Amino acid sequence: MTDQLVITGVSKRFGGIVANESISLSVPQGSITGMIGPNGSGKTTLFNSIVGHHPVDGGSITFEGREITRLRVPQIARLGMIRTFQQTRIFGKMTCMQNMAISDADHGYGLMALLKPVSGETRDRSEALLEFCGLHSKRHLLAGDLSFGQQKLLEFAMALMIRPRMLLLDEPTAGINPTLINGLIERLIRVNQDLGITLFVIEHNMRVIMNMAENIHCLAYGKLLASGAPDDIRNDQRVIDAYLGGH
Amino acid sequence: MNGRGQIILGIVIVAAALAAPLVFPDFRAQIAMLWVMVLFALTWDILGGQTGYNTFGNILFFGTGMYAAAVFQRDGGFDYFPGLFIGMGLGALISVALAAILGSMILRMRGHYFAIATLGLGIAAGEIASGWDYIGAGSGMSPPLFPGAPGISYIFFGYLFFGLALITFLLLAWVYRTRFGLALNAIRDNEDKAEAMGLKTDTYKIAAWMLAALFLGLCGGAAGNMLGFIDPRDTAFAGATFGVWMVLMAILGGKGTLWGPVLGAFVFHVTQEILWTHLLGWQRVALGLIIVGIVVFFPQGILGWARTRWPERFGHRVETS
Amino acid sequence: MLDNLQLFVDAPFLLIQVLLDGILFGAIFAIAAYGMALVWGVMNVINIVQGEFVMLGGFITFQLTLWGIHPLFGIPVAAAVLFVIGIALYYGVIRRVVDKDMFISLLATFGLSILLQQLMNQIWGGDVRTAQSGLGTWFLFDYTVTVGQIKVVACVGALILGLILIVFLKKSRLGQAIRATAQNPRAARVLGINTDKVFAATYGINAALCGAAGSLVVMAYSVHPYIGLPYTVRSFMIVIVAGLGNLPGVILAGLGLGAAENFAAFILGAQFQVAFVFCLLIVILVVRNTLLRRKRKYLK
Questions:
Q1: What percent of chain C has pLDDT over 70?
Q2: Where exactly are the structural domains of chain B?
Q3: Looking at CA atoms only, how far is residue A71 from chain C in angstroms?
Q4: Same domain for A74 and A171?
Q5: ∠A206-A211-A215 over CA atoms, to 5°?
Q6: Does A20 share its domain with A120?
Q7: Are residues A37 and A108 in the same domain?
Q8: Distance from CA of C149 to the nearest CA of B (A)
Q9: Cα–Cα nearest to C207, from C235, C181, C180
Q10: B178/A115 Cβ within 8 A
């Protein structure tokens, strides 16, 4: 498997605080890769750096061989790398179907392309994806009226709509009713296997990430602590120490 | 209201609009102004309601169109009607260019900075126009006289503005159904997310403002002729009247909807005509009070309120469980 | 325009005159700006009606002179009246929009600004008013540069107001509560601070500050019902340039803006002074935004 996302020596400082210190890791194409670490270890900061939310203080990031370190958020999104947010973000005053329609990237983002009504093809695909996420019956409701868990699913459906090449998921199971977590995991795995979408997932739920990911990176105190297969990480003393708070 | 209901309502309005200046000859001027108000509200709402970017300076385009047309009519050497229409087109062109240039500077910021930047646009334009001799400076300009009996001009312009308002309305109805309209709404609902989904938010915002500028420029060009005299501060760049009304009407009727601004324009214009005779100068004070009142207590506007009251009737599915 | 520039070459003392006048005026901008920064920092409200508070303070002081009272008394009176008005406006309007989106509070304060502007226009009419303080003029540099004493008083007065505010914020309990709420409203609430009262007090203090500034303006310069928006815009520009927490920066920016404006008025003609202010606003916003975009941030 080729490496789809390669991060080399990336550092990010906020004032005096070093959030990420010279982190190097890679995410193979088509894999499910996890990122774990105690709170404050810099995981979301790294995600933000990758998607162009802020500039990095050092290092380089390449996506499918292309240097993206200096690109902006919309540009990186158009390259096929989509991230979801911890506090789910959707378009609250639009219906689910409209949320899906605006996520359709098949026709490009040019003004001319946008000045067309929503095509039947888009509608069909939206309905199929909403069905896949269990939201079909809610498709004409305003996204803002959905429950938190449903909004998370909608955000996921929208991300799929774009036909991403890689999805960065920031704590996808956070705040979800435990009984619904399995359903979400199932969908994530199916999306990865059937559609070939690479998943790079930040997770706190150990059970979830250990069962889902092929390889895991552990961050702590802004540094990359350990990388490897789930079993290796699970038994790595440094990881255990980091979580138990040994300084 | 479903599609069929809207079409029926539309036909009724069109019929009434065509008949009104003939049936109520005494109110020809007010009827013509009504359509100008509708244009004000609709164009404000493109950026204000649909995109979530309040603009306090759209009057800039109205005044620009007004002056451009009048200057062309004065210096262009054409007969009245060709001069008028070409002048209007010129005004629209300049307004759109202005929107593109200004927009590329100030629409790359977030909504509230853009809003503040637009605060002074109308006043700055008014001040500059007051000092520019080529367009008459503080003494203003007079567009050429309408060729016809005194009352006829209001009938002509009444129909002209109605036509313009109708075209604007239909165009916006179409635009809001396209993915461009959805993109604008997405920017309104969560601009960060829209960017994270790859949308070219800057481009769309500027395009939206250019659209507003187009119709405001056309409208201004004709309005100058109808009003007969162009004063830089009171007619063209009338920030304290027209500029404020633009904002008020759209939020009164329900911003972010297609019919809301139209409704708001109707309600406001009729009320204003009544109030004017009784309140005189205090009318402007009342306007400020009304804006605050609506924004604080009634931000969803008439249509928004109707939607929460009768959601099914106004196009929203509600969960039935 | 070039003729005016030529004047600077012919009579260099003009440079000093224009600069001095500008700086003296600018101190007043700085105070209004600091008040705006306070409200913005504490409640996240951009107070578009800020300039109207200044205008009101000026008119109140003017009214005092109509009753035979010396305008210097207008400073505390205007401050007190505006404080009450500020509190009233907070409880009536502002507190209902504080927790909403910024564009709602923008519209609300915009509406208030229209309301006050037109109200004053109705009550006092559109004429330009000024209040005679009875102070004389200083002549510098062998009579080439004149400085109205009242202008110096106004400048010093503005700076003193700023100082009082700083001390108040640092030392008094309310001041500390205000600063705590500005830093972290939720934490402040947890610690038992009544954020609603803090917001009200902040808004009232801001209004009072502007009212006092307005007093100085009507004495040293003039007021009319429509001076509000330029003051609002000036305050906003200064806050953008100097940042929210930076009093020395605010003062410097204020003085600088005053000087820049005065030079522009002299070179372009007084009728373009207001247009200059608004154009400068756009320039500052664009420059600032461009600089931030390099760091991939945007003005928040």
A1: 97
A2: 3-309
A3: 9
A4: yes
A5: 90
A6: no
A7: no
A8: 31
A9: C235
A10: yes
In C, minimum Cα distance to B241 occurs at: C114
Q: Give the pair of three-digit tokens for residue B12.
A: 């009724």
Nearest-by-Cβ selection for C285 from B106, B124, B299: B106
Domain count, chain A: 2
Q: Considering only alpha carbons, which residue of chain B is nearest residue A144?
A: B189
Any A CB within 8 A of B178 CB: yes
Q: List Cβ neighbours of B281 (8 Å cut-off, separation of 6 or more).
A: C118, C121, C122
**Whole-number CA gyration radius for chain A:** 18
Beta carbons of B319 and A145 less than 8 Å apart: yes
Q: Do B106 and C236 touch (CB under 8 A)?
A: no
CA distance C137 to C148: 4
pLDDT tens digits, residue range A70-110?
Answer: 898 999 999 999 999 888 899 999 999 999 999 998 888 88
Q: How many domains does one find in chain C? A: 1
Whether the CB-CB separation of A82 and A157 falls below 8 Å is answered with no
User: Do A138 and A206 sit in the same domain of this protein?
Assistant: no
pLDDT digits (tens, 9 = 90+) for C181-215: 888 888 888 888 888 999 999 999 999 999 999 99
Cross-chain Cβ contact A85/B179 below 8 Å: no
pLDDT of C267 reads 87
* Cβ–Cβ gap C282/B105 under 8 Å: yes
Residue C297 has pLDDT above 90, yes or no: no
pLDDT of residue C208: 95
Q: Does C102 touch chain B (CB under 8 A)?
A: yes
Q: Which range of residues forms the domain containing residue A113?
A: 93-163
- Asked if the C-beta of B195 comes within 8 angstroms of chain A's C-beta atoms, the answer is yes
Confidence of residue B320 (pLDDT cuts 50, 70, 90): very low
Range of the domain at C181: 27-246
Q: What is the pTM of this model?
A: 0.91
- CB contacts of A50 in chain C (<8 Å) are none
For residue A141, the chain B residue with the least C-alpha distance is: B317
Beta-strand ranges (E) seen in B67-202 are none
Does a structural domain hold residue C114? Answer: yes
What digits encode the pLDDT tens for the residues C22-71? Answer: 988 999 999 999 999 999 989 999 999 999 999 999 999 999 999 988 88
B175–A94 C-beta distance less than 8 A: no
Say whether both A198 and A186 belong to one domain.
yes
pLDDT digits 0-9 by tens, B24-58: 878 888 899 999 999 999 999 999 999 999 999 99
Task: For domain B3-309, give the CATH number.
Answer: 1.10.3470
Q: Is the pLDDT of residue B165 over 90?
A: yes
Angle between helices B121-130 and B59-75 (to 10 degrees): 30
Residue C20 lies in a domain: no
Q: Which H or E run contains C263?
A: helix C247-268
Task: Kindly determine whether residue B295 and residue C111, on different chains, have CB atoms separated by under 8 Å.
Answer: yes
CA triple A199-A204-A208, angle to 5 deg: 60
Q: Cβ contact (<8 Å) for B179 and A102?
A: yes
Q: Are residues A247 and A196 in the same domain?
A: yes
B310-318 contacts, C-beta under 8 A, 24 or more apart? B313/B1, B314/B1, B315/B1, B315/B2, B316/A142, B317/A95, B317/A140, B317/A141, B318/A141
Mean pLDDT of A58-64: 93
Beta bridge partners of A83: A168
Residue of A nearest to C294 (CA): A55
Find out whether C198 and C98 touch, Cβ atoms under 8 Å: no
Can you tell me the ipTM of this complex?
0.89
Sign of the alpha-carbon torsion through C189, C109, B172, B193? negative
Same domain, A148 and A204: no
CATH of the domain at A186: 3.40.50.300
Which residues from B are below 8 Å from C233, CB to CB?
Answer: 116, 119-120
Residues of chain A with Cβ-Cβ distance to C297 below 8 Å are 54
